[in-house]
Design goal:
Strands 6-7-8-10-9 form a five-stranded mixed β-barrel. A four-stranded mixed β-sheet has the order 1-2-4-3, sandwiched between helices. It contains 27 helices and eleven strands. Helix 9 packs across helix 14 and helix 13 packs across helix 15. It is an alpha+beta fold. The N and C termini lie far apart (72 Å). Strand 7 and strand 8 form a beta hairpin.
Length: 858
């Protein structure tokens, strides 16, 4: 169905009143979002209101709203194309508004021209022009109701240019336009500059050539030999010098003072726009059996985790009933059945229903809408052609396309078989990326369907969404209660569901990480554009950081569906520093310097065990190798030197709690051996050691405890004035050579505290510090431990949300950076003391005592 805002409206009056009401509701929602300056949401709803079946008045008002939304988001050309037909309207008020708006838009597009192109002449002469002009002067676009809208003209087809996602500049005049000086077009990530044709050649035109790629884990950066005579991308095009307050580009050095003085919302990046292959061969065959075996292992791990958890819960429940049976006899409620068969049947049912369950959740929580190929073609004709071509080549049914009317940039692929698969993107993603980048991302998402790696993760997503949905619903209900006691209970129960959500994610983390490499490779081979996918990843990372800052908290859509997203929301903490770095080889805080530390260090794979996405630097470096393999310039320049290896002592300290487990196991096996020998020699005092499981469990606990105690002092060094960095720049911290979390840096940083204000932030899972040079995650532990975090009290960190604070703590870098908080001090003098070292010590001691008790009782 065409969604052109200027299609003929014949027959629209014969529609049922309910359908007309839906278009009017879309118009109202879009205009309300326009007033809030949420242009992505506004465009999604206003385009719906421009459907051909809507009445003419609704279409006219929606088209006028689209003109303002596109102009305010930076797409002046598209706004002009939609505004010109309104000049031919028979409504005098519409004509007056369109004429003035078109003139201002043309002047904005061509500021150097003193004689802008005049709007098309009006077909009829009107009486009372002065009165009409007076009426027009009082028109407000977002609340405008035309006197007559019975002559809706035809508009030209929508240009291929994609609107930019600039929503940071408030309007300075009634039409909502921002002067060109405030937002230079050359500094927008997706500026409207001419691009070469992007139609890929046919498959038959691709020369077959040998390829050294081994995928995914075996490949190392040094194994791929690039062609030096074609590597001409080391130097970026020179940009004209900017004033001190102008936003920096990626190819421009930025002084620390400039970076600190420029607010994040004013930053724009200049992308290299490295080219794509016109003729390219395959990257070589890959073995999908490893991926499918991992998918089977994920399904088994999910089943085992749920069954073991239910068995432990049933055993605890039965033990509780038996304990209280002396007072209240509830032994008839004891559970004896094994939950395994029921879990197996339930998981099979959830797998088959997964697309419809996720559809319902996204529709209820985020307003999921269908997305037609015609509508997708408005944003990216290449993506529409690509989906048709790839599905025809592989004899796949075209996946169902969906659109989320939200500015949060996200893409999701789910289902249980290819014919029932869905690819859902958000309006914010379409607004952020250029045409070729949208196509590369759709190819990436289609790769999940082609590789059959989406079914089990869809099941994991459904299973995790059940406790996550309950967590949010309980938190929102608890916020409406007035009793502190009731709020405390709700906080504890909702946090329990949040913990279940985090636990149930674990079986899918490994599969979610590995499948990204396969889909990136598929996208590169399908489009010949690994640089486009690189830019899409970087832009999504940056847009996610901007979304976190504009919302002031983490969107539940990003957190709840993190397993399915192409870029993790945690990478936004690195992405927020992108605008303050420069892509220059001699600049220590360049963009590649921010990503270099997790490019090819083997320990990053171990640090990523709790993340559903691979390290961004390693992923983008692999895409750069694909580009060099086809003799293309790379979007990013990576250093040729390898990072220095980390000291063995640091590695041992980092893994001390985990290394203590095999050491404890070895001690337990030695004790078992002693018990076996004692049995052979009839030493009754020691023969009980043989095969005692209590000894095994106790030694494991003691080994982990001793490793934790050994690591506490190096992990939490004293925060002294002589070693503490005061308000350091985040890019400088990220570019630091120290790469293990145990190598912490004491810091004191000022900024605005962000996060969720409600009970949904009871255990401080969403605390962010917005500094002058980016976002940083905060980890806070109450002096009373987890119980203190759950207590409803005025000194909870969420009470300081949206206020300026000073944070002292230990800055660490894993796959993403964070700060373990020591103190949080508000501008009014309120100080919150955290106790990470204390509780790490308490937990280690309790674990050792528990292990000792088990051995004594053995």
């Amino acid at each position: 169905m065409s969604n052109s805002p200027n299609s003929p409206a014949s027959g629209s009056n014969s529609l049922p009143s309910g359908e007309q009401a839906s278009y009017q509701a879309a118009l109202s929602t879009g205009l309300a979002a326009l007033k809030r300056k949420d242009y992505g949401t506004a465009i999604a709803h206003l385009e719906t209101a421009c459907q051909t079946k809507a009445d003419r008045s609704t279409q006219v008002k929606a088209q006028m709203g689209l003109v303002k939304a596109y102009s305010s988001s930076g797409d002046v050309k598209l706004a002009i194309a939609l505004c010109k037909p309104l000049c031919d309207s028979t409504s005098s008020r519409v004509q007056d508004w369109a004429t003035q708006t078109l003139t201002e838009l043309q002047q904005r597009l061509n500021p150097a021209s003193s004689d802008p192109v005049a709007p098309p002449p009006r077909p009829v002469e009107r009486a009372g022009v002065e009165q009409a002009g007076a009426d027009q002067a009082g028109v407000d676009l977002t609340g405008f109701v035309p006197l007559s809208a019975d002559a809706l003209p035809q508009a030209p087809s929508r240009p291929l240019a994609n609107p930019s996602a600039n929503t940071s500049n408030p309007s300075a005049d009634p039409t909502g336009f921002v002067p060109l000086e405030a937002t230079p077009a050359t500094l927008r990530p997706n500026s409207l500059r001419p691009k070469p044709p992007v139609e890929p050649p046919q498959q038959g035109d691709r020369p077959e050539e040998p390829n050294p790629f081994a995928f995914p884990e075996e490949i190392q950066p040094e194994e791929v030999q690039s062609e030096p005579e074609h590597q001409t991308g080391a130097a970026l095009p020179q940009t004209p010098p900017q004033a001190a307050t102008s936003p920096p580009s990626l190819g421009q050095r930025v002084s620390p003072s400039t970076r600190a003085a420029t607010p994040p919302t004013a930053q724009r990046l200049e992308w290299r726009q490295a080219g794509r292959a016109q003729r390219w061969g395959s990257l070589g065959p890959i073995n999908l059996w490893q991926l499918w075996l991992l998918e089977a292992g994920t399904a088994i791990a999910l089943f085992v985790l749920i069954v073991v958890s239910l068995r432990m819960a049933i055993a605890s429940f039965n033990a509780f009933l038996i304990t209280i049976s002396r007072v209240l006899d509830f032994r008839n409620l004891l559970i004896y059945s094994d939950p395994a068969p029921l879990v197996f049947i339930t998981l099979l049912a959830l797998l088959g229903l997964s697309p419809w369950i996720l559809d319902a959740l996204l529709e209820q929580q985020n307003g999921l809408q269908p997305l037609s190929l015609a509508r997708l073609e408005h944003h990216s004709p290449e993506a529409s052609r690509l989906l048709k071509r790839l599905c025809n080549q592989r004899r796949l049914a075209l996946p169902t396309l969906g659109l989320l009317p939200t500015s949060t940039p996200v893409a999701l692929t789910y289902g249980f078989i290819p014919s029932k698969a869905r690819i859902v993107v958000s309006q914010g993603l379409l607004q952020t990326l250029d045409e070729d980048e949208i196509a590369a991302l759709y190819a990436h998402e289609l790769g999940h369907i082609v590789n059959w790696d989406f079914a089990i993760l869809s099941l994991v997503a459904v299973v995790t969404q059940i406790p996550y949905f309950l967590y949010w619903q309980l938190s929102e209900w608890g916020d409406r209660q007035s009793s502190f006691f009731l709020q405390g209970i709700v906080a504890a129960v909702s946090t329990l569901f949040y913990g279940l959500y985090r636990l149930l994610r674990w079986p899918g983390l490994w599969l979610a990480r590995v499948r990204i490499y396969y889909s990136d490779r598929f996208s590169a081979e399908a489009t010949g554009n690994p640089n486009g996918l690189t830019r899409s990843c970087l832009k999504l990372t940056l847009a996610t950081a901007q979304d976190l800052q504009s919302r002031g908290q983490t969107d539940p859509l990003l957190e709840g569906f993190d397993l399915l997203a192409p870029v993790g929301y945690r990478s936004a903490f690195v992405g927020s520093a992108f605008p303050y770095s420069a892509n220059s080889a001699e600049d220590s805080t360049s963009l590649t310097a921010l990503l270099e530390r997790n490019r090819h260090s083997f320990y990053q794979r171990w640090l990523a065990v709790n993340h559903p996405h691979p390290p961004l630097g390693h992923r983008l470096h692999l895409l750069s190798q694909y580009a060099r393999h086809w003799r293309l310039d790379s979007e990013l320049d990576w250093p040729t030197s390898k990072p220095s290896p980390f000291p063995l002592q640091s590695l041992l300290l980092q893994g001390a709690p985990y290394f203590g487990i095999p050491i404890g196991l070895a001690v337990a096996l030695c004790l078992w051996l002693i018990g076996g020998l004692a049995g052979l020699l009839n030493w009754t005092a020691l023969d009980w050691l043989w095969g005692d499981r209590a000894i095994l469990m106790g030694c494991l606990l003691i080994g982990c405890s001793l490793g934790t105690l050994m690591r506490i002092n190096p992990f939490f060094p004293d925060i002294r004035r002589d070693v503490t960095q005061i308000n350091p720049l985040l890019p400088d911290l990220l570019a630091d050579s120290r790469g293990l979390p145990v190598e912490s840096q004491p810091v004191q940083m000022q900024g605005k505290l962000l996060g969720r204000r409600s009970l949904s932030n009871s255990v401080c899972q969403d605390l962010l510090l917005q500094t002058q040079t980016g976002l940083i995650k905060l980890h806070y532990a109450s002096p009373l431990g987890a119980i203190g975090n759950l207590m409803v009290q005025p000194k909870h960190p969420r009470q300081l949300i949206s206020t300026n604070v000073t944070v002292k703590g230990w800055f660490r870098q894993g796959v993403t950076p964070w700060i373990d908080v020591d103190t949080i001090q508000s501008h009014r003098g309120l100080v919150l003391k955290a106790s990470h070292p204390l509780w790490a010590t308490v937990i280690a001691v309790l674990t050792a005592l528990w292990g000792t008790y088990l051995i004594a009782q053995g």
